[in-house]
From TrEMBL:
<dbReference type="InterPro" id="IPR004085">
    <property type="entry name" value="TopoVI_A"/>
</dbReference>
<dbReference type="InterPro" id="IPR013049">
    <property type="entry name" value="Spo11/TopoVI_A_N"/>
</dbReference>
<feature type="domain" description="Topoisomerase 6 subunit A/Spo11 TOPRIM">
    <location>
        <begin position="191"/>
        <end position="357"/>
    </location>
</feature>
<comment type="similarity">
    <text>Belongs to the TOP6A family.</text>
</comment>
<dbReference type="GO" id="GO:0006265">
    <property type="term" value="P:DNA topological change"/>
</dbReference>
<keyword id="KW-0799">Topoisomerase</keyword>
<comment type="subunit">
    <text>Homodimer. Heterotetramer of two Top6A and two Top6B chains.</text>
</comment>
<keyword id="KW-0238">DNA-binding</keyword>
<keyword id="KW-0413">Isomerase</keyword>
<dbReference type="InterPro" id="IPR036078">
    <property type="entry name" value="Spo11/TopoVI_A_sf"/>
</dbReference>
<dbReference type="GO" id="GO:0006260">
    <property type="term" value="P:DNA replication"/>
</dbReference>
<protein>
    <recommendedName>
        <fullName>Type 2 DNA topoisomerase 6 subunit A</fullName>
        <ecNumber>5.6.2.2</ecNumber>
    </recommendedName>
</protein>
<dbReference type="InterPro" id="IPR036388">
    <property type="entry name" value="WH-like_DNA-bd_sf"/>
</dbReference>
<dbReference type="InterPro" id="IPR002815">
    <property type="entry name" value="Spo11/TopoVI_A"/>
</dbReference>
<dbReference type="GO" id="GO:0003918">
    <property type="term" value="F:DNA topoisomerase type II (double strand cut, ATP-hydrolyzing) activity"/>
</dbReference>
<dbReference type="Pfam" id="PF20768">
    <property type="entry name" value="Topo_VI_alpha"/>
</dbReference>
<keyword id="KW-0547">Nucleotide-binding</keyword>
């Protein structure tokens, strides 16, 4: 992040605090409005092909004790973030929660990390500055990249150039908290394959899938962190690479795909920055469970409820997803990526993925 960007982020934070004082000066009750972060307030942006927040807003107002406490916490957090930028330091979301215990007003301290996380998200929305530009980091996600990609990363110890096959071990290149500090130098990739589980990611690397098919393998590590979604979007937008998402065959994994492709409810204000609408789902599909006779587990009540909820989720209201979800509700089964090993350890790289990728027009 450049000094100019840091100064802009700091200025926007101070402008936020100044607005509260201006409201006091006008005799108004201080308040801060943010979009309502619920599924019912998600709308489709036809220009960007992503899901974003609608017009409904929630107001944090000092006309109640609860609202006044929220604004007090916002002021303390703004002061902390501004000082952090001034000192060119960074901190984690977890550290912010604990650090608030040292603030001199008890009412300004956070009662839980969920509360401090939500406030940082509120500040992102109203200031139009991402938390990465506030120098706020999540706990390390550990997500990695393996593939024919040469990049330059800006670090506190200077620039370093890395080839994400030749210069890394089998663990791959770890994605930094802010992927915008990366410059793509060169690549020999044909597409990006985002993989949900570590076990499957390791299988692909061990079998040399990244080398044989010129693939950038991105380990999502479950529900992907923002940094993972951001670098995936950059790989698509800047290198013109198709993006595919390879997950388990259950409703929670479909939501992982949805967050990569269309954004999530929590970060809908950043969908244009994080989401890759062109991403394609590559499995495990409910129809694969039947076609390949994969080992399965029965759907739980929560699985069924999640699938039925997805039928109402705007991210899944397509002919493809409605068909797949209906198939799964009918067979009442779910299956993991590793279940493909029932056909042999090489089946996923020699048969399943090549056939799927060819049918999708990626290969």
């Amino acid at each position: 992040m450049s000094a100019d960007n840091e100064a802009e982020a700091q200025e926007k934070l101070i402008d936020l605090a100044a607005e509260f004082y201006d409201q006091f000066e006008r005799g108004d009750i201080p308040e801060m409005s943010v979009p309502t972060r619920t599924k019912s307030n998600i709308v489709f942006d036809e220009d960007e092909n992503v899901w974003v927040y609608g017009d409904r807003e929630s107001t944090r107002s000092a006309n109640s004790v609860r609202g006044a406490r929220k604004l007090l916490k916002a002021i303390y957090t703004i002061e902390f973030l501004s000082e952090q930028l001034e000192a060119d330091r960074s901190s984690t979301l977890r550290e912010l929660y604990y650090l608030s215990e040292s603030w001199d007003v008890n009412e300004a301290q956070f009662s839980s990390q969920d509360e401090s996380n939500q406030l940082v998200e509120d500040l992102e929305i109203v200031s139009e500055v991402t938390r990465e530009d506030f120098h706020m980091r999540p706990e390390e996600s550990g997500a990695t990249i393996m593939g024919p990609l040469h990049l330059r990363e800006q670090t506190r110890r200077g620039e370093r150039e890395i080839h994400c096959q030749k210069d890394v071990g089998e663990g791959g290149y770890q994605i930094p908290n802010n992927p915008d500090t990366i410059e793509f130098l060169d690549h020999d990739a044909d597409f990006v394959l985002c993989v949900e589980t570590g076990g499957m990611r390791d299988r692909l690397v061990e079998n040399g899938f990244d080398e044989e098919y010129n693939t950038i393998v991105v380990h999502l590590k479950g529900q992907p962190a923002r940094a993972t979604r951001r670098i995936t979007k950059r790989l698509h937008d800047e290198l013109d690479l198709p993006v595919t998402v390879f997950t388990d065959g259950d409703p929670w994994s479909y939501r992982i795909f949805g967050s990569v492709a269309y954004g999530s409810i929590k970060s809908a204000h950043l969908s244009e920055y994080l989401a890759t609408p062109e991403a394609q789902f590559i499995g495990i599909q409910p129809e694969d469970i039947v076609e390949y006779d994969l080992p399965t587990d029965p759907l739980s009540d929560s699985d069924v409820n999640a699938l039925e909820s997805e039928l109402e989720d705007p991210r899944f209201q397509t002919d493809y997803w409605e068909e797949q979800i209906e198939i799964q509700l009918d067979i009442e089964k779910k299956s993991e990526q590793q279940s493909l090993a029932s056909h042999g350890l090489d089946f996923v790289t020699e048969t399943y993925l090549p056939e799927r990728l060819e049918a999708m027009g990626v290969l």
